[in-house]
Amino acid sequence: HVVLRAAGGVGLPAWLKIVAYAASIPVAQYIRGIPANRARRRDMARLGAHPVPRVKGWLPGNLDVLWNLVVSDGEEYCAETMRKHAETLQSATFDMGILWASQVLDPANVQHVLATSFNDFEKGVKFRDMFDLFLGQGIFTTDGEQWKEHRALAKPFFSRERITDFRCFDRHADKMLHVMALYANHGDPMDIQARTDSQFPFDIFCRFSMDVGTDFLFGRCVKSLDALICHDDSFGRFSTAFNAATHLGATRVRIGSLWPLFEPFGDRAAPAVNIIRDLIDPIIQDAMLKKGQLQSSDRLIATIWPSSLIYPTLDVDLVRAEVMNILLAARDTMASILTFTIYCLTQHPGVQDALRHEVERVVGESREPTHEDIREMRYLRAVLNEVLRLFPPVPFNIRRSVGSSALPSPLSPQGPLYMPANVSITFISLLIHRRTDIWGPSAHKFDPERWLGPSEPGEDLKTKVHVANPFAFLPFNAGPRICLGQQFAYAEASFIIIRLLQRVKSFELAPEAQPEGSLPPADWASSTIGRESIERCRPVSSLVLSIKGGLWIRAKMKEGYAHLHDGNPL
Ligand code: HEM
User: Fold this and answer.
1) What top-level class would CATH report for the domain 48-557?
2) Would you state the pLDDT for residue 351?
3) What is the CA(50)–ligand 1 centre distance, in A?
4) What are 390-432's pLDDT values in tens digits?
5) The pTM is what?
6) Residue 393 CA: which ligand 1 atom is closest?
């Protein structure tokens, strides 16, 4: 890091920076290596642990393993490379050998990292560096006391009273359905997610969750859905830039400490971040100008960023960092759960019928759903849980060890595995949620029924597996850093799915509209691995799980809604 920063600072030519950085690695390893290895062996013996099984590459530092990981990104089924390594090594916890970063598919080890030994693991300075320009210092990127402060300040926003007020959802759901109806009436296919490479993303769910998120958090909305209706799509650029910055951050996480090698010409997040700032900064500055007359609509600015933070410093960078952190947490995750719910409903007409039946029984054909309705709708909750199990919006997560410890590793034949200090550990919820040894032979099947045990209405639904092994299902993370927006997310997703089913007669996939190369490759049809043979889309992971090329569907509106919005302003 020192060499890299110095090389960046003195403005050396790009090729020289690469050489300087590459040369620094073996030198640093040589200097630190020998005594460190001896100390590690002693520590491992003290903890009664064994080395984490390691992937054997053929290039020094497993650079070939890293290369395969980067080139397979978006080509293979999401997380397939990791699954294959685990299978080859026959260990649910393994080390890709890229600078001692372990990959974990064992719920007991996730429990160790996220809960039991919470204080021994952090996001760490490297993670912060990877997102520095995009996210700065906020709840998502900080650790220790600084994180505790952010968390305490943000918590009141997710009070029961606030998350049971559905007016905010309804305002934006109406607009979203209006946009959908425009397309449905013409029989045109629509992309409800977003093509990450599109200059003009027709990203209905991203826009909906962005509008709800900004309205809920700031009391003002960026009106991204209006932009679609009114021909003005400056927001489209913002959305594309947000996607690009997120994707770049995820790629850096996957590459690990060597990421600067892949960006020899400077921080590649800069162009996207500039576009984001163009849109966000005026909103923040506007809020700051109103400092003397804060109304309830400025709740977040007033509460999360108390006057001591904003007003004496008037530091736009600081406030922007907070905004970007929470928007990142709220926008793409919501778009992801909604997109995959629609995908699953198109694939399972029986589930769609059962869900419609529940909507009609509890809420009726047109009434706005309430918090109590949603508590009563157990089948809806089961559908959402099953979507979160198979397609967790945050499929990978990463922590860094502060001290050394022994990972319990009951799923690895070696017994407890040694976790040295200062190394990264990635846990892959998507693979944990699909383990057949935990979830049974039907692990890859979409089956909401598995959630319908004998719980009371309103109680959280739990499968038998989940009761026995709570860390086998962790779409919202677990432990002290569990998602703050979990209940808000369930409420928002339930609300919009109910509204959609009340107004839309049917959805179907429109594969002919998918961009080239985004449909599952032909050889998946005969595959016996996981869900490859049944998947009709390609789930890919940036920071958040999405569908390659977007999810193109055709919708038919119900009588009474079909004629309301004729004409196509786009
Ligand atoms: C289905 C939707 C969602 C899923 C699956 C989800 C999942 C997650 C996960 C896995 C984390 C942990 C991230 C990490 O450890 O790095 C997280 C953190 C967080 N989420 Fe969510 N989230 C969702 C929706 C939301 C929404 C709608 C909001 C806000 C309105 C939100 C606010 C947060 C915040 C503030 C954190 C940071 C917590 C902390 O570090 O203390 N989330 N979420």
Assistant:
1) mainly alpha
2) 97
3) 34
4) 999 999 888 999 999 999 999 888 889 999 888 888 889 999 9
5) 0.86
6) 5
- In this structure, the residue with its CA closest to atom 20 of ligand 1 is 483
Name all residues whose Cβ lies below 6 A of ligand 1. Answer: 139-140, 151, 154, 213, 326, 329-330, 333-334, 337, 393-394, 397, 475-477, 481, 483-485, 488-489
Question: CA-to-CA distance for 477 and 397, rounded, in angstroms?
Answer: 9
**pLDDT of the residue at 444:** 96
Cβ distance 217 to 300 under 8 Å? Answer: yes
Long-range Cβ pairs for the range 252-257 (8 Å, 24+): 252/130, 252/131, 253/127, 253/130, 253/396, 253/398, 253/426, 253/543, 254/69, 254/70, 254/73, 254/396, 255/66, 255/69, 255/70, 256/66, 256/98, 256/99, 256/101, 256/126, 256/424, 257/99, 257/126
Rounded Cα–Cα distance for residues 458 and 473 (Å): 19
Task: Write the residue with the smallest CA distance to atom 19 of ligand 1.
Answer: 483
Mean pLDDT of all residues belonging to the chain: 81
What is the C-alpha separation between 252 and 259, in angstroms, rounded? 5
Q: Which of 333, 385, 424, 544 to mutate to test the pocket of ligand 1 (most atoms within 8 A of CB)?
A: 333
Q: What is the residue with the minimal CA distance to atom 32 of ligand 1? A: 485
In the chain, the percentage of residues whose pLDDT exceeds 90 is 34
Amino acid at 171: R
Nearest atom in ligand 1 to the alpha carbon of residue 151 is 41
| Nearest residue to 277 (alpha-carbon basis) of 310, 248, 237 | 237
The CA-based angle 158-141-40, given to 5 degrees, is 125
Reported as a single tens digit per residue, the pLDDT across 495-512 is 999 999 999 998 899 999
Is 230 annotated among the ligand-binding residues?
no
pLDDT at 125: 87
Ligand 1 atom, smallest distance to 140 CA: 40
Atom of ligand 1 nearest to the CA of 336: 1
Sequence spans of domains, the chain: 1-47, 48-557
The complex's ipTM works out to 0.98
Measured distance CA(394)–CA(112) in Å, rounded: 19
Q: How far is the CA of 486 from the centre of ligand 1 (A)?
A: 7
Is residue 194 very low, low, confident or very high in pLDDT (cuts 50, 70, 90)?
low
For ligand 1, the distance from its centroid to the CA atom of residue 483, given in whole angstroms, is 4
Lowest mean pLDDT of 33-47, 120-134, 146-160, 233-247, name the range.
233-247
Residue 524 predicted with pLDDT over 90? yes
The alpha carbon of 280 and the centre of ligand 1 are apart by a number of angstroms equal to: 21
Range name among 308-312, 467-471, 530-534 with the lowest pLDDT average: 308-312
Q: What pLDDT, on the 0 to 100 scale, is given for residue 496?
A: 93
If one residue of 162, 474, 483 were mutated to test the ligand 1 pocket, choosing by the most ligand atoms within 8 A of its CB, it would be 483
